[in-house]
Structure prediction request, 189 residues.
Amino acid sequence: MRRRSLAHLGTTSAPPFVSAAERLRGQRRTSARATGVVGVSASRAEEPSCHALPARMASTNRGGLAIALVLLLALPRVAHAQAVPDPDPWWGPDKALHFGLSAAISGAAYGFTGAFDERRPVRLAVGAGVGLLAGATKELLDLAGLGHPSWKDFTLDVIGTACGVLVAFLLDVFVFTPLLKPAPVPQPG
Prediction:
């Protein structure tokens, strides 16, 4: 079913609920009749060409496109200028210290426990417990007013403890155990 155009109203302005394509059809119809296009049938002159519609729509929307482009380029700069820097960034130098010291403390506790107990689960538990205890103690002291408490610091304490215990465990299983294994004694036979 073909839509009815607004050319019969005798005006080129259209109500706001009319689509851009209908407005363009009405304008083309009026201009084709007014200029008396030779060699074009009435039905052909009434319909817009498929190439003219995008060009017409682009020329009417250039102002809006320019405003949108300026806003898209300007808004990130305004937001960046108003952003307050994070006083406790994830990649701050103190985070590396929390990670490294927790890893070292937990790995050393794992190794020290190996001198007293041969069971690996006990060594893992003591290494992890000492590493987490050191990190938690530091954050509680910060909370008491001796520093700046931070959940990010404690998160890196936990990650450092896990890495330290893992490295100590892997060294125990793959390096020290094979080296310390007694050589088999040959049986006289």
